Amino acid sequence: MTYELISYILGGLTIGSALMVILSSHPIRSVMYLVITFFFISGHMVLMNAQFLAIVNIIVYAGAIMVLFLFVLMLLNLNKESEPRMTFASQMAAILAGGTFLLVLLAALAESTLPPMPEGMSKQIADIQNEGLVQNLGQLLFSKYIVPFEVSSILFIAAMVGAVLLAKREKQNTEEI
Amino acid sequence: MPALISHAEFSKDFYLFLCPILFTIGAVGLMIRKNMIVMLMCIELMLNSVNLLLVSFANFFGQGDAHIFVFFIVVVAAAEATVGLSIILMAFRNLRSIDVDMFKKLKN
Q1: How many other C-beta atoms are found inside a 10 Å radius of the C-beta of residue A170?
Q2: How many domains does chain B have?
Q3: Is position B4 within any domain?
Q4: CATH number of the domain that residue B19 is part of
Q5: Sign of the dihedral defined by the CA atoms of residues A68, A72, A73, A77, in that order
Q6: Which of residues 65-84 of A touch B (CB under 8 A)?
């Protein structure tokens, strides 16, 4: 019962802070609410025995990516007047489209049934509880998923080179400013 | 230990309900905001809702593979955020605005 209660409270808080991300007019407030949302999502992950991913979520998302967003926002030095606004009609159209999308998604998921668990896949309860720990995930990552893991390092190098190349000031630009 | 099984059962149903809502909030945010940085943040929100659903199914089936997938989604999201932010920075330097409509100027 307490598990369900905690899940419901955490879920409500997550939806509330996610709504604040898109509703707050100031971008910095949006970033802050997104950080809060990521913390709540990490809470959900802890509830589901995914301790490693919860910590990774906090470190990578809330710690690194969101700080990057904050840095960029502060570099750009925006104010309320420069915040672009949409017309009321197009906002309503977007909300209508999103609501319809949610309705279809929820209806489809409510109708769906899971396939029965394949033989030999069912595990001991103790294994399920330990599934999200660093030891198990590390063994899986460095044996079965070693190739994607190595490929992701190439992806990171590509992203890093791309970011440096894009952010580098062009020659004629510096003369202008 | 039937209590844990029922937890997994409950959380699967609960997150099948919660994650589409979070995903839709991200999608609606993508549509109603014109600030490019906030739009990028909405994409992160959508990615995270998918992560949450993957973790709930991993918990339900007791398999660690979905955790690895979530890990790779986080990796790709980090790479995407850095490149996206540097594109936004470059666009701001040239156009002096972070309105997505400014990209219409690319047509000429």
Answers
A1: 11
A2: 1
A3: no
A4: 1.10.287.3510
A5: positive
A6: 65, 68-69, 72-73, 75-76, 78, 82-84
CA distance A7 to chain B (A): 8
Among B51, B79, B77, B45, residue whose Cα is nearest residue B66: B51
Task: Give me the pLDDT at residue B5, please.
Answer: 59
Domain of B75, in residue numbers? 11-96
Intervals of chain A under pLDDT 50 = 176-177
- B86 is a domain residue: yes
Q: What is the amino acid identity at position B74? A: V
The answer to whether residue B76 sits within a structural domain is: yes
The answer to whether residue B3 is domain-embedded is no
Between helix A134-141 and helix B65-95 the angle, nearest 10°, is 80
Does residue B9 carry a pLDDT above 80?
A: no
A58 contacts in chain B (CB < 8 Å): none
ipTM score of complex: 0.90
